[in-house]
Structures are given as structure tokens and as C-alpha cells.
Amino acid sequence: MLVVSLAGSPSERSRGGVVLEKAREWLQGRGVEVVCYGIRDFVAEDLLHACFDSPQVLRLREHIAAADGLLVATPVYKASIAGALKVLLDLLPERALADKVVLPIATGGSEAHMLVVDYALKPVLAALKAQEVLQGVYAIDRQVSYAEPERPASLEPSLQRRLDDALAQFFEILARRPRALAPETLYERLVQSRWSI
């Protein structure tokens, strides 16, 4: 299984990044390969000028095309998603998330913005034809602690439980998805099967 993790914060260190790191650890502990991207991995001019042929954008598109699922995190800015994340998502093909399962994550200063996932992020993911967009996880800033020299980054227990539950659902859906057969395997099975008319 392959999952792409996409951090939408333009900050060098972000709470959404901490949540995504915890999610990556959880998934890798269950044998899932996770490829991580952040907005800072892309050249600002490529995003501003909508360079669809940017090497970084093309690499992201290839990984998403090969992936089974996507984790996408955004901070809340002006009661919406990060603008840089929206610009990056706009550079993906129209059906980039077809056959993909998506777990959206948002972080904000208060509970007042918890509907950002439903009203700002999910419509964009739906426009990219995501097969299934899970309920998502909303974290309040105070629930996420950055790593310090004396302690690792952490989540409040209630947030950690919600994240674990969401990841368990995400993993279960990924695990039951039908796997595409390699062309040589499909050919072999067709040759070996008995057809009658």
C-alpha cells in the first residue's frame, strides 16, 4: 500500500505537520509506505504561475497516481484552507484522486473553525474525484505540542484517540480495496482459464 502525505502549511514547523508525522508513524507501523510532501517542497514561483510542468509538481502527480490513499493537512486561515495548498491542488489533473481514499486534517486556533474540513477542504477533494473522503480530523492548536529538546512532539490524548480511530478506518478501507492485476498476471490467468461459448 502507498499513501501520499501532503502538508499544506507554508510554515517551517506546523501543528498539521506534527499530526501528519503521527499518522505516518501509525501507518508505517502497519506496513504502509508513506511518501511525504509539504508546500515548502515546491518552488513558490511555480505555484504562483501555475507551472503544471514543474518537476516537483510532476513528481507529486506521479506519486498520487500510484497511491492508494492521501493524507492532506491544512491550517485554517481566514476560516478556510491555506491558499498555497489550494493552488497546489489546482495543479493536479481533474481526476487525480479518482480511486483514492482521502483523510483530511485541519488545525485551527479554536473550535469555531472545525467546519473548515466540510465546507472548504472536502469540496476541493470532491472536485478532484476522490473515491471516498473520510470525515476527517480537526485539531485545536493547544492539542498539539511541538518537539522540544527534552520531549518529542505529542498530541493530547483525546486528539490522539480521534486520529487513531480515523487512521484505523482509513487503513481498513485501503486494505479492502481491490488490487489491480499486473498485465502479465492477467494474461497468465486468461490463458489458463477455460472459456466456453
Automatic annotation (TrEMBL):
GO biological process, alphabetically ordered: alkanesulfonate catabolic process
Record carries keyword Flavoprotein: yes
Matching Gene3D superfamilies: 3.40.50.360
Cited InterPro entries: Flavoprotein-like_sf, FMN_Rdtase-like_dom, NAD(P)H-dep_FMN_reductase, NADPH-dep_FMN_reduc_SsuE
NADPH-dependent FMN reductase-like domain mapped to chain residues: 1-143
Superkingdom assignment: Bacteria
Keywords of the record: Flavoprotein, FMN, Oxidoreductase
Record's protein name: NADPH-dependent FMN reductase
